[in-house]
Amino acid sequence: MTQQETDITYMRRCLQLAAQGLGRVRPNPMVGCVVVAEGKVVAEGFHQCYGENHAERNALLRLPAVAACNGATLYVNLEPCSHYGKTPPCADLIVERGVGRVVCCNDDPNPLVAGRGFEKLRAADIEVVRHVLEEEGRRLNRRFFTYMERRRPYVILKWAESGDGYMAPDYSPYWISTLRQTLLSHKWRTEEAAILVGSQTFIDDRPRLTARLWHGADPRPVVLDRRGRLDAVPAHWLHLREESPALVLQRLYEEKVQSVIVEGGRRILDAFIEAGLYDEVRILRNDACLLGGGIKAPKAPAGALYF
Length: 307
Known about the structure:
30% of the residues lie in helices and 23% in strands. It has ten helices and 14 strands.
């Protein structure tokens, strides 16, 4: 293989490792690391939980001695950090361990890093190769990049609809999703920072918005109460009264919410669609369920995904 092909191969492994941190490391990005010496993988690691060691530290500390990585190539999908946060700077450890070459997927947009990690490496005469599988890396960490660059949460619009295109009958709450779809929905909840419903959904369903049917952390529940109809909201809920999707996302950004599932109802979903303030649309469609009338589901935008 050429050096470029080799770099791509090991970077793909980094991304595989990084993906295991989904839902566990936020608001940090998902990061994986592979250390290669003399053509062999000698250590791997990934960021496993927020507040714990970063990927590079998890990989390098698995090596028994500094000499084990002298001149080695370290692959990592995000620029190594250069500042003290919950853990010491990874760039410093890479230098200390005598790594000879660092291959990276994405630059870090976080102002605390933003090029400083690479500067430390180059100052120690470590070769730095950037932008290997850059688009794949951005896709993996799309929540992190959206939050950092657009200064708003990553937005997923989600609803369930019947085979004839209705969200609910007129007469009462109705369960449209199949069991498989419900399990999938709870899995998604563990992957995002918050979940938002409107005041009518809160009044009609008294939803818990937990991930009780899947293993993982619950998202932060949020209710949008634009008309001020709610007097009693549980203390752990975020109670919003902003008038527009843009103001809602501004408030969530200020609350350090990196991603949000917007579950509706119909008016809220339409408002986000009309404002163009969404990144994904996920629709749980049950073709076996036909309501024959009721509340029509929103018109699915281009690129919507059906499950």
